[in-house]
Here is the input.
Amino acid sequence: MAGRLDFEKPILELEMKIAELKSLASDGSIDLSDEIKTLEARLEKVRKEVFESLTPWQKVQIARHPKRPYTIDYVHMIMVDFIELHGDRMFQDDKAIVGGLAKLDGEKVLLIGHQKGRDTKENLMRNFGSAHPEGYRKAMRLMKLAEKFDVPIITFIDTPGAYPGVGAEERGQANSIAHNLMEMIDLKVPIVVVVIGEGGSGGALGIGIGDRVFVMENAYYSVISPEGCAAILWKDRLKAPEAAEVLKLTAKDLLGLGIIDGEIPEPLGGAHRDPEKAAQSVKKYIKKALKELKAIPTEKLLEERYEKFRSMGSM
Here is the structure.
């Protein structure tokens, strides 16, 4: 089946066997209910064994799953009245980053997030979720708008990294990301950041400075991709699984290191297996964070945000 990962093969085999038995018994001429029940119990056990003992590299694979919910999917599942805003007012509209105003249970919010595509055509349009400098400039333009109207900001991170092409560098890729880091520290509204899939390098950080930073259970957040790390350290991209181990890029590792504020649970097997359930988990964490942050005076909020990032790595 399309979209299945290698380590899911035992699950797939059992699912196919169950489907085969159900098909044989569908006309009522043979009773296979006991056999089906036995296999379903076995399937549940195997699912738990596989998904509750995932390696960091396997979590990276799930984070990249083509059926995993993307930013716009979450917007449609947990928000209403989304109005997308376009352009950086300097060069063009970068479709790898989407943003706009929406309502979360009646509360106005500004949503910004990386957006990947579902097929080759859309991926080319979205540049596989890798933003150009105009994408980060658009994001900051919208954040400044949120600050002006006292609207909290929510960002969804899902990118392998900022686009490293010649054109992006000519238009100031590094500068646009650095500018966002500097400006986001001082924005006078609450900022909640959620890594929903891939959280790669400066491309993630460009919209990743917040008062609360959450990473989904099967997402990752890292200074570099496992493949990039393997290519540098071992001159061999095939050592990506080993790199994923040493990078400490999973939510549990990051939480233990004090880099993030929480791990958002996912349905067994990943967010793509039950997008609605995953979306409700994301919504729960966002709403709780916004309630806490809105109770903090602005001056104290900015002080805590600064200290949060300034103290990273001092453990």
Observations:
- The longest helix spans residues 275-294.
- Residues 6-53 form one domain.
- The mean pLDDT is 93.
